[in-house]
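Mods, move this if it's the wrong board.
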Amino acid sequence: MVEAQDSIIKIKTAIVLTGMLHEAKKKGSSHSRIANNPDYIINSIGKISLETGLRKNTISDLLNGKKATKLTTLLPILTALDKTLIDFGKHFEKISDSDIQSFKEQHKLLGSSAKIPIKKPKK
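Not the wrong board. Structure tokens:
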């Protein structure tokens, strides 16, 4: 039961963070990182990594629901995306069971596509 709950929390967190990243991407892009530039938009895993000091792999694992998020990791990511913990909570609570199921199916397909066996030609 606890393991299932942990899995759901990881997935919901991934859904929220991915959604926030997509929102940032819709705002446009900024290619130069200039200190205190109000037009600079953090809209990629790489930019989040630069801004927070977190590894790209860590951020990717969080966005894919592979890793549990600690508050000390979540807060810098939210700050980089110009979001608050309140914003996160509002999105988190709106996630439905069907959203969770869609996420699971999507990631199951992505995971299995890399494992498609290659048939050897018959001689």
